[in-house]
Design brief:
By secondary structure, the chain is mainly alpha-helical. It is built from twelve helices and four strands. Helix 3 runs parallel beside helix 10.
C-alpha cells in the first residue's frame, strides 16, 4: 500500500470517528450523525458562529475545540521560513537527498495551513484531512534525513566502527518508517469501516492497529539511536579522534553530531506523545485539548531549525578528508585489520571530485583512471 494513500485512509478514519459518524441516530431526531452533520454543514449561520457555542458538545466538530488562529498561522510562518532556508542549503551543498528536510518542512507548512483554515471552518473535512495527512507523514522525512546524516558522518569518521555499512542506514531505517505508515493506514481503513458500520469491535481493532504502527515508528528511531551510540562509543575509544580536531573539513563535524542528538531526541519525544494520545482514545484528554498539540509542533520545528544551524553545508563541506585516510597517511594502525571492501570509498556522497583509493594520495576519476591528487 502506498504510504500517501495509507495516510489518507488514516485521516478519513480519524475524521469519521471524531465526528462519531455511524448508523446511530442523534438524540431527539430520526437522523444519523452523518445526516445530521450534512444538514448542519448546509445551515447559515453555522453553530460555531452563534453565542454560547460549546465545541466539546458539537458532534460535527471533529476537533472538539476551535483550533487557534494565531498558533496556526504563526506555525505556517515558522515552518515556511525554515523550509525555504533548507531549500537554499540543499541547493548550495548539491546534496540532493537533503531534500528530505524540504519535503518534510513543506508538509508541516501545509498541515498548519489546514489547521489555520480549521479555525475559520472547523466543519471543513478537507482542512481536517489535510492537517492530519501532512502532520502524520512529515516527521518520516525528518527521520530519513537524520538516518542519512549519521551514515554520512560515519563515512567521514570511521566506517569500521559501525554495525552496518554507512550507506545502508537510510535504506534500513526508512523502510521501518514506511512500514509503520502503511500499518497506520491499514488501521485507519479498518477503523473507518467500523465507524461506518457502527461496529465497536472493528473500530477498536482499527485503533489498535494504528497504535501499533505508531509504536513501530517510535521503536525504529530508538533502535537507530542504539546503533548511533554503539558507533560513537567505538569511535571515541579509537586513535582516530586525534585526526578530526583541526583538520580542515572535519573540524566542525562535532556540531553535526550535536544536531543528530537533538533531532533524534525531539522525534522520540513526539513519538511518545503520539503513542500516549492514541492509547487514551479518540475522546482522551490529550486529543481534546489543543495545548498538548505543542508536543507535536515544537519537536518538529526544533528539529528543522537545529539542522538549519548545523547543516552539512557548514559542518561537513564537500571534498572533506576522512579520519581513516589521515590515519593511514600518518602510518597509524587502524582499529581493525584492513578489509577489501574498504579499499575504495566514496569521498563525498554526490561529489563529482572522484574516489579515494585506499589510504594513498591517489584519486580515481569516474572512468576508473588514476591520477595524482593535486597539491
Amino acid at each position: 500500500m502506498d504510504p500517501l494513500l495509507s495516510s489518507h485512509h488514516l485521516a478519513r478514519a480519524i475524521h469519521l470517528i471524531a465526528r462519531q459518524t455511524s448508523g446511530s441516530t442523534v438524540p431527539g431526531t430520526n437522523l444519523t450523525v452523518e445526516q445530521y452533520c450534512n444538514l448542519v454543514d448546509a445551515t447559515s449561520p453555522k453553530p460555531y458562529d452563534l453565542p454560547g457555542y460549546d465545541p466539546a458538545r458539537d458532534l460535527c466538530n471533529p476537533y472538539r475545540y476551535i483550533p487557534s488562529e494565531a498558533w496556526g498561522w504563526i506555525s505556517v510562518a515558522l515552518f515556511g521560513i525554515t523550509t525555504i532556508l533548507h531549500l537554499y542549503q540543499t541547493i548550495a551543498s548539491r546534496r540532493w537527498w537533503l531534500f528530505n528536510w524540504v519535503a518534510g518542512g513543506f508538509l508541516e507548512t501545509l498541515g498548519w495551513v489546514g489547521r489555520g483554515i480549521g479555525h475559520s471552518d472547523p466543519y471543513s473535512r478537507n482542512a481536517f484531512i489535510i492537517q492530519i495527512c501532512c502532520l502524520v507523514i512529515a516527521p518520516a522525512f525528518f527521520s530519513a534525513a537524520i538516518y542519512g546524516l549519521l551514515g554520512w558522518a560515519i563515512t567521514a569518521l570511521s566506517p569500521r566502527h559501525s554495525l552496518i555499512k554507512p550507506h545502508r542506514y537510510w535504506m534500513v531505517f526508512i523502510s521501518g518508517d514506511i512500514a509503520s505508515l502503511v500499518i497506520q493506514g491499514i488501521g485507519g481503513g479498518v477503523a473507518s469501516a467500523g465507524s461506518n458500520q457502527n461496529d465497536p469491535k472493528k473500530l477498536k481493532t482499527g485503533s489498535n492497529i494504528m497504535l501499533a504502527g505508531i509504536i513501530i515508528q517510535l521503536a525504529v528511531m530508538i533502535i537507530f539511536c542504539g546503533f548511533a551510540l554503539h558507533f560513537w562509543y567505538g569511535f571515541k575509544r579509537s586513535n582516530l579522534r586525534q585526526y578530526v580536531k583541526g583538520t580542515r573539513g572535519l573540524e566542525k563535524i562535532h556540531y553535526l553530531g550535536y544536531g543528530l542528538v537533538v533531532g533524534s531526541a525531539v522525534i522520540i519525544l513526539r513519538g511518545i506523545y503520539r503513542v500516549v494520545e492514541l492509547a487514551e482514545g479518540w475522546r482522551g484528554h490529550l486529543m481534546l485539548h489543543e495545548f498538548f498539540f505543542l508536543l507535536d509542533m515544537l519537536p518538529c520545528i526544533i528539529c528543522l531549525l537545529t539542522f538549519n544551524i548545523v547543516a552539512p553545508l557548514y559542518t561537513l563541506p564537500r571534498g572533506y578528508p576522512t579520519a581513516n585516510d589521515l590515519a593511514q597517511q600518518a602510518g597509524e594502525p587502524l582499529p581493525y585489520p584492513p578489509k577489501e571492501e574498504d579499499g575504495e570509498m566514496k569521498r563525498d556522497s554526490g561529489s563529482d571530485q572522484g574516489t579515494r583509493v585506499g589510504g594513498t594520495d591517489d584519486w580515481k576519476d569516474d572512468k576508473g583512471h588514476k591520477e595524482k591528487e593535486s597539491e
